[in-house]
Write a structure and sequence with these properties.
The complex is a heterodimer of chains A (299) and B (307).
Chain A (H helix, E strand, L loop, with lengths): L1 H31 L6 H18 L7 H27 L7 H22 L5 E2 L8 E5 L2 E4 H23 L1 H11 L11 H26 L2 E2 L3 H16 L4 H20 L6 H15 L14
Antiparallel strand pairs in A: 1-4, 2-3
Chain B lengths: L1 H21 L2 H26 L7 H19 L7 H23 L5 H19 L19 H23 L2 H11 L1 H6 L4 H27 L9 H14 L4 H17 L11 H15 L14
Helix pairs in contact in B: 1-6, 2-6, 2-9, 2-10, 2-11, 3-4, 3-5, 3-9, 4-9, 6-9, 7-9, 10-11, 10-12
Classes of the chains: A mainly alpha (299), B mainly alpha (307).
């Protein structure tokens, strides 16, 4: 039973991270109907942004202020990278077939992964300790650690912030408009290009937050760190119904918990195969995922 | 017809012999790589270029063909190299069966979702091989039956490429190919016009994965060591780049681009990269530039010999 709770806590941590990254996938899909394969690499770049800022500022001792600086650095850096990727790779293809955009996204992703190996070096780097991972309290041999609590808290506040942005602000209203009718939104005076950029930046900032959270829990970063976590988050986004924000969060948590129970109770080598099997079954039974909306194609 | 085939065989052996004596083994190995890459590019081009069914899972088909053929020649045919063509065809059949399974979701899913399913299929194949001890698991499968000499390897791989090209090109311009073009242009409209969508997609997937399996088998016998890591996502992307660069829908374009893209990284090998695979820098840049500047690839849908 104690083991079960420990897996649950770990699963919730990773579920939070999956949810944050899956939100980026789902937001971009919602607004451009494209899979942003480079999203996992924006996540990786966020972690490297913090790493280099910390190195440049010579910060190595853990403190809450340094944690805040690290988080801000990752958010700004990831947001900037997301903006650039959209501007230089996807914008020229706004009117081309979907397959071309998808192929470009794959190209951008691989360029970041292998270009990163040249620029940053292929060997893993140790991420600076931003906060000491102390045990906060303990219930019946289940230790609850500070970093897990931080992950829950940061994720929760990010979700609240995102909810406010999407539902309460003018930008969020415009995002929803572009997402539901991209052809009509410009007629309502919405600058579509600006809103698409804003969506990319928002998704990338969330990925940057996730990167710092993961790097705090597992302080080894390398240019390929986004591949596995990106794939899982992507599965989470599709599982929840790609294009749906609550779906991405629910999918992220379900997948995080599921993967940790799998790892905990054997079968860890089959982890990815099982998540993909699950994905294929979900797509066959309900192609739009848990919360996705069904769209009719017209000619 | 048979006279022509024999003539082709002799000419392949002739070219192989010339290469055998005038090229060093490094370039010989590159030539075989080009032939295998061209087979893979053609097979992907048929399903993605002609039928517009986006596949990110060709590494999976390739792995099935490679492992099947490697195991069969080693365990059942006792390392006889002249059985390689037969075991390659068997590998193709296994891959083709997998292609049949992958085609089932393609009736319901299209575009991005199909890409995900094929990608997931390749991952599942990879993880299953990784956990399967009989074929070596993560250690890979080594001492695969090798070709006795470069000439034989060149002749047989070359003939496989030739047959692949001939079959896929003729299918492309056939009645069946026209149905696939209709699905490519607009699936709903094609269905309204009476094209049997499901049947055609299934056949296209099975044909494409068959040749991918054959290509994988020839790859395995060429490099004589395969491991699950070989057939990851990057392999699928590499095949995709060959097909896209040559022009989706142009069979001769695929062969041409396989030739260029196999040679290009070797030409640029002297650049300092710090041990990173140079192909994985050139290919994505090329891919992005092609998509932005010339989305139809080198040849578009035309063939080199067509006016």
């Amino acid at each position: 039973m104690q083991e079960f709770f420990q897996h649950t806590l770990n699963g919730l941590s990773f579920g939070s991270v999956y949810a944050l990254i899956a939100l980026g996938y789902t937001m971009v899909y919602g607004i451009l109907t494209m899979i942003n394969f480079a999203h996992s690499d924006i996540y990786m770049m966020g972690a490297f942004g913090t790493y280099y800022v910390m190195k440049y500022l010579n910060i190595s001792e853990p403190s809450p202020i340094n944690f805040a600086i690290g988080l801000m650095a990752a958010m700004i850096f990831a947001g900037f990278i997301g903006y650039c990727v959209e501007k230089f790779a996807y914008k020229p293809l706004r009117n081309s077939p979907k397959m071309n955009v998808l192929i470009t996204a794959i190209g951008v992703s691989i360029l970041f992964e292998f270009g990163g190996q040249i620029v940053f070096g292929a060997d893993p780097k140790s991420f600076p300790t931003l906060l000491n991972d102390i045990e906060v309290f303990r219930i019946n041999d289940i230790s609850i650690r500070l970093i897990d609590l931080i992950i829950y808290a940061v994720t929760f506040s990010s979700l609240i912030g995102l909810n406010y942005l999407i539902n309460k602000t003018q930008t969020g209203r415009a995002m929803r408009a572009v997402s539901s009718r991209p052809d009509m939104a410009p007629l309502m005076g919405i600058n579509t290009n600006k809103i698409i950029s804003a969506t990319f930046i928002t998704g990338s900032v969330l990925a940057g937050i996730a990167a710092v959270l993961v790097a705090m829990k597992y302080p080894k970063i390398d240019p390929m760190m986004g591949v596995k976590i990106g794939t899982s988050s992507f599965v989470a986004a599709v599982f929840g119904g790609i294009g749906s924000l609550p779906g991405a969060v629910v999918g992220g948590y379900l997948l995080g918990l599921g993967e940790y129970y799998l790892i905990g109770y054997g079968a860890s080598t089959y982890k990815e195969a099982l998540s993909f099997t699950l994905l294929i079954l979900v797509l066959l039974a309900k192609p739009t995922g848990l919360f996705g909306l069904k769209t009719k194609e017209k000619i | 017809m048979i006279k022509k085939l024999i003539l082709f065989f002799i000419s392949f052996v002739g070219v192989g012999l010339i290469c055998q004596f005038f090229l060093n083994s490094y370039i010989q190995s590159l030539v075989i790589s080009f032939l295998v890459n061209a087979i893979m590019a053609l097979s992907l081009n048929f399903i993605t270029g002609v039928a517009n069914q986006f596949s990110l899972g060709h590494a999976g088909f390739m792995a099935l063909g490679a492992y099947t053929s490697a195991v069969i020649t080693k365990e059942f045919f006792g390392h006889q190299w002249f059985m390689i063509p037969i075991s390659a065809l068997l590998g193709g059949l296994v891959a083709s069966f997998a292609g049949y399974l992958v085609s089932l979701p393609s009736f319901k899913l299209r575009g991005d979702y199909l890409a995900i399913v094929t990608f997931g299929f390749a991952e599942i194949v990879r993880v299953v091989i990784l956990n399967w001890n009989y074929v070596g698991g993560p250690r890979g499968y080594s001492s695969i039956t090798a070709w006795p000499s470069f000439t034989v390897s060149f002749a047989i791989t070359g003939i496989f490429l030739f047959i692949t090209f001939l079959v896929l090109y003729n299918l492309k311009i056939s009645w069946f190919g026209r149905n696939l073009w209709a699905i490519n242009e607009n699936e709903i409209a094609a269905e309204v016009m009476g094209t049997p969508i499901a049947k055609n997609k299934r056949s296209a997937f099975m044909i494409s994965s068959f040749f991918a399996g054959v290509g994988g088998a020839l790859y395995a016998h060429h490099v004589s060591y395969i491991s699950p890591a070989t057939f990851g996502f990057l392999m699928s992307v590499q095949i995709l780049i060959f097909a896209v660069f040559g022009g989706l829908g142009s069979m001769s374009g695929s062969v041409l681009s396989a030739m260029i893209l196999t040679a290009l990284p070797e030409v640029l090998r002297s650049l300092p990269t710090g041990g990173v695979d140079l192909r994985m820098i050139i290919f994505p840049i090329l891919l992005i530039l092609v998509m932005i500047l010339r989305p139809q690839g080198l040849m578009g849908r035309k063939e080199i010999f067509e006016k």
